[in-house]
Amino acid sequence: MPKYKKTEWQVGDPPISVVGDQFCNPYPMELMVKRKVKNLSKDHYQVFDPSGNVLLQIDGQAWGFNRKRVMRDPAGFTVLTMRQKGIRLKRKWEVHGGESKEKEDLLFTVQQSSAMSLKTAVDVFLAENNNVKKSSTCDFHASGGYSNISFKVFKSDALIAGVGVTHKFTWGSYCKGKYNFRVSVNPEVDYAFIIALLVMVDDIENLC
């Protein structure tokens, strides 16, 4: 991977719409993400705006392989579905619009950058650049995680979103599966896409 410069996506830059234009705002967004384990097999994420309004909810399996997570809007309509692809050293997900599994509804693929690394990192390939085995250039790159106290998403050399924990890190809250993230999304960046990436990176952290 190239070394990323310290530039940021700014007001006036073209929109980055991956999931949908309705998730792109012309101004920076500060979101709160709350995660909790509902039972031994399922967990639940809620995404709030600064006023406390729910923007997105994600439900799915907390453990196991071939996991599926579903993102819904406040009205309960499915926005996208994340599916982990089998057992492999470098974990991989396919993300489709709605509840679909069809190739024509594929939005993007996420693959762990390295199976052996102290820092969690993933590469993102949009549907039109989805041949992960042959393509050497990803469309986005994300790295970090809860235990690293940070998470950043890049498009080429530009930072498009960053995440931090909202309280002092403790392994107790982490192991209980209950913790919060503060997500800073840059202008014109698809926040549903950023949240989906955060959830998948969090999956890696919880399995490592």
UniProtKB/TrEMBL annotation:
Residue intervals passing through the bilayer: none
InterPro entries tied to this protein: LOR (IPR007612), LOR_sf (IPR038595), Tubby-like_C (IPR025659)
SUPFAM superfamilies: Tubby C-terminal domain-like
Family statement: Belongs to the LOR family.
Protein name: Protein LURP-one-related 14-like isoform X1
